[in-house]
Amino acid sequence: MTTSPAEPLKGAGTSGQGLKLLAVTACPTGIAHTYMAAEKLTEAARSLGHEIKVETQGSIGAENLLSDNDVRDADAIIIAADKDVDRSRFVGKRVLAVGVAEGIRHPEQLMERVRSAPVYGRAEGDGAGTGPETRSAPRGHGGGGKERSVAYKALMNGVSYMIPFVVVGGLLIAISLALGGNPQADGGLVIPDGSFWKHVNDIGVIGFTLMVPILSGYIAYAIGDRPALVPGMIGGWIANTGSLYDSKAGAGFIGAIVTGFLAGYLVLWIKKVEVPKFARPIMPIIVIPIVATTVLGLFFIYVIGKPISWVFTHLTDWLGGMTGSSAILLGALLGLMIAFDMGGPVNKTAFLFGAGLIASGNQTVMGMCAAAIPVMPLGQGLATLVRRRLYSEQERETGMAALFMGLFGISEGAIPFAAARPAQVIPANMLGGAVAGALAGTIGVTDAVPHGGPIVAVLGAVGGVPAFFLAVVAGSVVTALMTVMLVDVAERRKGGERPGAGGGAVAAAAGGSVVGAGAEAVVAGVGVGGGADGGGGAGVVARTAAASGSVPAAAGGPGPDAGDADGDGADAEGNAEGNVGAVANDGGGLGEAPASEVLSGYLTGQTVKTELVAEEKEAAIREMAELVAATGKVADADELVRVALAREAQGTTGLGEEIAIPHAKTDAVTAPVVGFARSADGIDWGSLDGTRARLVFLIAVPEAAAGDEHLRILALLSRKLMDADFRARLQGAAGESGILRVLGEIR
């Protein structure tokens, strides 16, 4: 069913054919409220006769990812989130964006409001952001296109995390050279060892050194989640360290992109391997990172690294044979090489070739290189000024930094643009570099120092300064104009693939999700661990026909990272499907589990209390800490209480519906443990819906015991507790054994 974007959706609902809706739920803490909103929207859709699929973006990653086909067939999209969500994939669709609390409190109203919601991407007032967290994602051609989307978002995730390192490292190097460098007789610039500015320069170099592993690591993270971060970063470091595979230059950012994708998909493959239940907790924090890092590192050194070394050696020999050829041809070739990979083996080959000839008295080759070196950052920075609408705010800010770096001959300033749009930026860079190199070679520009950019001309190292600046300006303008043209063409093509699709801004943020450890800086919409088919995941799916009200199971089964919050392939009770509640459950239990197996054995009769004595939140948390301490798994009950209260200070764990799930990740406990207690009168927990908490769970896990084990438990609890019948039976269960029987339904 499709509707005209110009008119409100009509004739759909309980009295007719239901709407086909999509939803995305997310909250800053990324845990219970995310799933609670998803369940509420699912229940509302069922009652109103609509069809809905909900993508959850929690701390355990994006689950039940919306595919291009889902978006294409949808009538409207509801975003219930308190953090940024990528809306660019919803161009041409009605989008209603509200806070996550609205998804919990008023799901039925949202489904009515979305009928007349503005069409995203059609008007300025559509509420669609085009800021740093928003990106124009590729659209499919009617097919699934999901793999392309995941790869694109993973690349953008890596770029977004790399940008601060490029900017900070590049600007610190440039500032230290400008303020602390001493001009030399040959026109060079040297910062005295041990000086203040030398230390500033060293800090900048560290930033530059880290940018390649960061790019690789966060590409891997966006694909394989946390277990892929270490192999991705170490793989990127190896790619950038040519000495490990007998090359004078590393593979640079192109090598980092390769290792990032290899690490991410390698981890996804390892996650599919079935392992004994006792080994599952250590898979994401020990086994997977070690195996993936070792395999990827050796593969790069012995398989990928050797060809890079061969290319470096033979390119150098080839260039040596061209020194007597046409200066225009040699300059154009060197410009192409300098601009190709900006710090990679091809770039380094050209640079070291020119630098090596300075000692022999041939300074013209270095002059060609010096003119080409600043063209990429200057050209890309200029492009962000020439056609601002093609770039996000953060990209425009990065463009200003690139301009500054270009003045000091720091070509890496253009890497974020090349990594984000390689098909458009790299050819434009190469054309501009070739123009600059050819002009410098034709006019006979010389450079007496192994560096490039306007700074060396200002300091007197360049011979033929006017011609040098002419070459630099010409190359930069060509790069800027070619970039703008190619990006504009690409955006128009994207826009033509779907009615109403327009050009979008390209973000460099992220994490946005991504996704920092500790702080939840996540590039919205960057899926982690989703299956290739898009049908899996531990998210919420309801396919409810208006007539029958039935809810078929989600097709496709779980994705590689579905149903397992910590990415170790384990579900709540060893479920072979790995799907922890992909389908909204109408019925009561899923079968009873033995008491020792409730929540993987973390909740037992010893940690259940039928009636809390406490009447307020802090006292209740302390009472429950003492309850779980009786198991012998709590080394410091006071510290457990302190950490749990600190978590409450970040945001209430009262979910509403008379439920509270305080939780703590602390070494005050020696092993994961879950406690449960009821309160007859209820406790004021600051819940979103104002209800007093009568069902209280306390989750406590060690800092490094089982990866994201507490998130997995939270996800299981918050989903099951949205079942009103389950809550009623839990509230009315007689004694500890009765409570355990009801809780045994959580799987």
UniProtKB/TrEMBL annotation:
Q: Indicate whether Cell inner membrane appears among the record's keywords.
A: no
Which parts pass through the membrane? Answer: 158-179, 199-221, 251-270, 282-304, 319-340, 352-379, 399-419, 431-449, 455-487
In terms of NCBIfam families, this protein maps to: FRU (TIGR00829), fruA (TIGR00848), PTS_IIC_fructo (TIGR01427)
Segments carrying the region annotation (Disordered) are 121-146, 550-578
List the SUPFAM superfamilies. Phoshotransferase/anion transport protein, PTS system IIB component-like
Tell me what organism the protein belongs to: Streptomyces platensis
* Signal peptide span: none
User: Per the record's keyword annotation, is Cell membrane included, yes or no?
Assistant: yes
Subcellular location per UniProt equals:
Cell inner membrane
Q: Which PROSITE patterns match?
A: PTS_EIIA_TYPE_2 (PS51094), PTS_EIIA_TYPE_2_HIS (PS00372), PTS_EIIB_TYPE_2 (PS51099), PTS_EIIC_TYPE_2 (PS51104)
**A Pfam family reported for this protein in Swiss-Prot or TrEMBL:** PTS_EIIC
Task: Provide the PTS EIIA type-2 domain boundaries.
Answer: 601-746
Under which name does UniProt file this protein?
PTS system mannose-specific EIIBCA component
